[in-house]
Amino acid sequence: MWFYITTILVYGAVDALACLGLNMQFGVAGISNFGFIIFQAAGAYTAAVLSMPPAATSNGGFQQYILGWNLPWPLPWIGAALVGGLIALPFVFLVGKRLRGDFAAVGLLVSAVLLNLLATNYIPFLNGAAGISIVPAPLQSIFDSQGLGYQLAYGGVAILLTIFVYFLLRRITESPYGRSLRAMRDNDVVADSLGKNLRGQRTSILVLGGMVAGLSGGILVGFISLWAPGAWGYAETIVLFAAIIIGGAGNHKGAILGAILVPLGFEEITRFLPPFGSPSLVPALEWVAIGLLIILFLWFRPTGVIPEKRRILSAIVGRAPAVAATGEADASKDNIGAIDDFNFRSVLNTTPVANDHRVILSTQGLTKTFSGVTVVSDVSIAVQQGRLTGMIGPNGAGKSTMMALLAGTLPATSGQIFYDGRDITRVASYKRAQEGLVRTFQLASEFKKLTVLENLVCAIPRQSGDSFLGSLRGRRFWGEQDKNNIERAEEILEGFGLSQYADLYAGGLSGGQRRLVEIMRALLAEPKVLLLDEPMAGVHPNLARKIGNHLTKLVADGMTIVMVEHELSIMDEFCDPVIVLADGKVLAQGTMGELRANSDVVEAYLVG
Question: Is 384 exposed, middle or buried (0-12, 13-18, 19+ CB in 10 A)?
């Protein structure tokens, strides 16, 4: 009985560690790593060969493997974790910016299959399908590895390591860096436009998840004393995904619960079933049951048994949540009165600059084609610092594409972009944002599963806890600054009259309110040049004009704004000059009065 309990403890810890590592990648950072089992297998193999003596002297040399260093515990487990993390690096460099969504899932799944085939069939490297057997248990030269006391201690150490990893991952997840990871998960293009280094974030989380997986493999191989590639098939990753989906993606407690319910629970339940049918029937039925559970949970409870918790940032600054935790935003109308007396500059943490109207953003021959179709053609413009420049044109004129090219969201096919006197044509979009070139999007682009306050705070640059190492230093390191940032976000939220929605998910707001959140978020990113793509769409006309008045005040203090807008009355009132695009080319430029007198502009756009 006690030996059975120790086995449950060890397997439970191994499964929980694996689920925690995968949940950090998939549930928190949004990386669909269907090759996760590779990291666990690599860690297990590493722990095995670091524990064993050289192959030529081990038990008559009947099996082949590399290394064989006979290292004392815990060095093999440490090596397992390190190799699990190192195995993740090639995926970052090979897949690169395409490491997202379906591309990542398919690419990593294929990698898992190929590596399993290599391990199974290339005997000189990993001993082929036979794997490695008679792996020494940790400290077996000192203790009886078959004794009950040893096995209980082994299970206890495995549980303690699981607890340590849980609190380590929780420390990261609850930091500003964890907030940025969840923003990347919700909308990586928008996170990139706010200055988040997506490749750096994905690298850190792939490596961290790989280390956790490698450690879990090292613990398992030391307990069962063998390693075989057949036990690390890609299907095992599906089991871990099922555990996270059922337990609750994005919630580390849910990941542990899922590990107990699925890989551990299903394995143990089948032991108590009476024999029936062919020997392969019960394992097949296990897969059927797992598949049905995944479908049922995705359909009826996609958040899992323990859903990801909502972060109530108002509590951090000592205020009660603005809206009941179970409430949804009453988005029937926007508040248009609160913004009258609000001073944007008081919370933007920027200083006025000399408004000399020099050219701060320009293009020369900028062109963008998609599959041979030219959307932006040989565009050369010059945007002056301290002006609110408008951009109009008929549908399909290339306005949004132009904004994406300026911000770096899309790469230019040809031509050059200059920002503050420097060629930035090949500069990554996140670096442009960090240097003050910030954009909004044509369609509402809030982080749906972050609260409104989280959306705003996430945009504030230079946060001490918004890095992997900063998050590890804990709340004592970044907590005070984060509190100040939350207060700044609450102040601008109050100025826009949306304080009552501060702790609700941004995805629950109305279209107009989501637009306001995006404008506030862009302003908190502390832009020097702000690219606004139809910012007033869905916003109450009176509120739109009030926002326009404040934008002109910011422009008077030196901020530069380029705004795409279909509402010509907004252009008339606030923008000078206005650039007209048609068929991807610059048709004209000037004041709205001048453009109305231009027959080409009238024919192309202003008629009606």
Answer: middle
**406 or 131, greater pLDDT:** 406
* pLDDT(487) > 80: yes
Position 331 scores a pLDDT of: 40
The domains located in the chain, with CATH, are: 2-233 (no CATH), 357-606 (3.40.50.300)
The Cα 561–Cα 440 span in angstroms is: 11
What average pLDDT is seen over the chain?
86
Q: What is the mean pLDDT of residues 251-265?
A: 92
Q: How far is CA 499 from CA 267, 338, 513, in A?
A: 49, 10, 11
Q: Dig out the tokens for 47 from the structure.
A: 């722990």
Nearest Cα to Cα of residue 12 among 224, 264, 274: 264
Evaluate if residue 19 carries a pLDDT over 70.
yes
Distance CA 401, CA 412 (A): 10
Higher per-residue pLDDT: 107 or 196: 196
In angstroms, the Cα distances linking 103 to 95, 96, 228, 325, 429 are 8, 11, 29, 36, 21
User: Tens digit of pLDDT for each residue in 397-443?
Assistant: 899 999 999 999 999 999 999 999 899 999 999 999 999 999 999 88
SS (H, E, C) 246-263: HHCCCCHHHHHHHHHHHH
Q: Is 483 helix (H, G, I), strand (E, B) or coil?
A: helix
Chain centre to alpha carbon of residue 317: 26
Where do the H-state alpha helices sit in 96-231? 101-121, 123-126, 148-173, 176-186, 188-193, 198-224
The pLDDT of residue 269 is 74
Q: Can you read off the two tokens belonging to residue 527?
A: 């832009």
Per-residue pLDDT, averaged over 226-246, amounts to 86
Task: Tell me the average pLDDT across 262-268.
Answer: 81
Q: Is residue 600 over pLDDT 60?
A: yes
- CB-neighbour burial class of residue 572 (10 A; exposed 0-12, middle 13-18, buried 19+): middle
pLDDT at 98: 54
User: Which residues of 488-543 form beta strands (DSSP E)?
Assistant: 529-533
Q: Is the CB of residue 219 less than 8 Å from the CB of residue 161?
A: yes
CB 239 within 8 A of CB 116: no
Q: Identify the three-state secondary structure at position 53.
A: coil
Give the separation between CA 219 and CA 414, rounded to whole angstroms: 53
Give the closest residue to 475 by CA, choosing from 461, 460, 488, 465: 465
Q: What is the DSSP string of 394-460?
A: STTSSHHHHHHHHHTSS--SEEEEEETTEE-TTS-HHHHHHTTEEE--SS----TTSBHHHHHHHH-
Distance, CA of 597 to CA of 600 (rounded, Å): 9
- The closest alpha carbon to 24, from 251, 294, 297, belongs to 251
Q: Rounded to whole angstroms, how far apart are CA atoms 83 and 500?
A: 48
Residue matched to tokens 């391990």: 119
Rounded average pLDDT over 308-323 = 80
Return the structure tokens found at 282: 């019960």
